Amino acid sequence: MRGISSEDHDLALAVLEHDQLAKAKSHRYPRRRLKGGELIVLWALRIYLLFMVAVVLYQLIGGAH
Description:
single chain, mainly alpha
Protein backbone atom coordinates (compact mmCIF):
# COMPACT_ATOMS: atom_id res chain seq x y z
CA MET A 1 0.00 0.00 0.00
CA ARG A 2 1.42 3.34 -0.98
CA GLY A 3 0.88 6.62 0.80
CA ILE A 4 0.42 7.27 4.48
CA SER A 5 -1.09 4.95 7.04
CA SER A 6 -4.59 5.54 8.37
CA GLU A 7 -3.16 6.60 11.75
CA ASP A 8 -0.95 9.22 10.08
CA HIS A 9 -3.91 10.37 7.98
CA ASP A 10 -6.07 10.80 11.09
CA LEU A 11 -3.26 12.67 12.84
CA ALA A 12 -2.78 15.00 9.88
CA LEU A 13 -6.51 15.79 9.79
CA ALA A 14 -6.54 16.40 13.56
CA VAL A 15 -3.78 19.01 13.48
CA LEU A 16 -5.03 20.98 10.47
CA GLU A 17 -6.77 24.28 11.08
CA HIS A 18 -10.35 24.69 9.88
CA ASP A 19 -9.52 26.43 6.59
CA GLN A 20 -6.70 23.99 5.85
CA LEU A 21 -9.03 21.05 6.48
CA ALA A 22 -11.71 22.55 4.25
CA LYS A 23 -9.19 23.04 1.46
CA ALA A 24 -7.90 19.47 1.87
CA LYS A 25 -11.43 18.06 1.68
CA SER A 26 -12.37 20.14 -1.36
CA HIS A 27 -9.73 18.50 -3.58
CA ARG A 28 -11.44 16.81 -6.52
CA TYR A 29 -10.24 13.60 -8.04
CA PRO A 30 -10.84 12.84 -11.72
CA ARG A 31 -13.23 10.12 -12.78
CA ARG A 32 -11.73 6.67 -13.04
CA ARG A 33 -11.68 5.04 -16.46
CA LEU A 34 -13.59 1.78 -16.22
CA LYS A 35 -12.49 -1.40 -17.95
CA GLY A 36 -14.69 -3.62 -20.12
CA GLY A 37 -15.83 -5.98 -17.38
CA GLU A 38 -16.66 -3.16 -15.01
CA LEU A 39 -18.74 -1.40 -17.66
CA ILE A 40 -20.64 -4.61 -18.38
CA VAL A 41 -21.44 -5.07 -14.69
CA LEU A 42 -22.64 -1.47 -14.33
CA TRP A 43 -24.84 -1.67 -17.43
CA ALA A 44 -26.25 -5.01 -16.24
CA LEU A 45 -27.14 -3.39 -12.91
CA ARG A 46 -28.83 -0.48 -14.70
CA ILE A 47 -30.90 -2.84 -16.83
CA TYR A 48 -31.80 -4.93 -13.77
CA LEU A 49 -32.87 -1.79 -11.92
CA LEU A 50 -35.13 -0.70 -14.78
CA PHE A 51 -36.62 -4.18 -14.95
CA MET A 52 -37.33 -4.24 -11.22
CA VAL A 53 -38.91 -0.77 -11.33
CA ALA A 54 -41.19 -2.05 -14.09
CA VAL A 55 -42.09 -5.12 -11.98
CA VAL A 56 -42.90 -2.99 -8.94
CA LEU A 57 -45.02 -0.59 -11.01
CA TYR A 58 -46.86 -3.53 -12.56
CA GLN A 59 -47.58 -4.95 -9.11
CA LEU A 60 -48.75 -1.58 -7.79
CA ILE A 61 -51.05 -1.01 -10.74
CA GLY A 62 -52.32 -4.58 -10.63
CA GLY A 63 -52.97 -4.34 -6.89
CA ALA A 64 -54.86 -1.08 -7.24
CA HIS A 65 -57.46 -2.61 -9.56
